[in-house]
Amino acid sequence: MATRTPLIAGNWKLNLDHLEAVHQVQKLDFTLKDAKHDYSAVEVAVLAPFTDLRSIQTVVDADKMGVKYGAQDVSQHVSGAYTGEISPVFLAKLGVTFVAVGHSERRQYHGETDEIVAAKTKAALDHDLTPIVCVGEGLDIRKAGEHVAYTLAQVDGALAGLSAEEAAKIVIAYEPVWAIGTGEVATPADAQEVIGAIRGRLAELYDQSVADVVRVLYGGSVKSSSIVELMAEKDIDGGLVGGASLDPEEFARIASFY
Ligand code: PEP
């Protein structure tokens, strides 16, 4: 079976301007190096506002940091009359590795449908960016016991039209909406239930070799106090970390969970 390198990705959301971003990645890199972080054992990434990316690229390149960086969204279009959008081509030119697609806040506040999420996922892959496809149910769906079916339907929607080769390159983040920014972490068993089902769906849609290589993260109020137990679950390959990623020392502790 393939071994999957864990990924700890910090979603800064709408925080940190380009000057603060430079300070943040320097402090993160320093703290990780101090903790003798092994970048070959665990990948670390920050997903920053678009306006930070050029500054982050400069400092990461200059200081030869192992930290990777990404964006929080991408246009499904490459160019044209799409005011305010950011092309995957522009992101690729800035050395971006990851891009979050279909975060629940994009779905909620920007009306992103499964079709849009699928188009953005494809656009990212077409330009050698790794999409982190975000899925997860709201509280009413969880209470109704429909969380697995709901989340798998989002996975089906996001992956519609992708070949097995393309699907093998994506990352999926299971983020129950009721756990995002609320301080309420899903139990490791709750997260494993859905993430195991996502891996099962990948095997059904493609084959076991795809299911074995795709990294599936958990996101929702992850902290250094919860990451170890989450990572002990067999299908959880890392964390998508919001609030706690704004504190470089806490984020470095999360990334050094192993
Ligand atoms: C997120 O923004 O994807 C997230 C999981 O946020 P938080 O860790 O703050 O819940």
From TrEMBL:
Annotated residues for binding of substrate: 11-13, 181, 221, 242-243
An annotated GO BP: glycolytic process
A single GO molecular function term of this UniProt record: triose-phosphate isomerase activity
Subcellular localization, as worded in the UniProt entry: Cytoplasm
Pfam assignment, any one: TIM
Predominant place of localization: cytoplasm
EC number(s) on file: 5.3.1.1
Function: Involved in the gluconeogenesis. Catalyzes stereospecifically the conversion of dihydroxyacetone phosphate (DHAP) to D-glyceraldehyde-3-phosphate (G3P).
Subunit structure: Homodimer.
Protein known as: Triosephosphate isomerase
Organism from which the protein derives: Rarobacter incanus
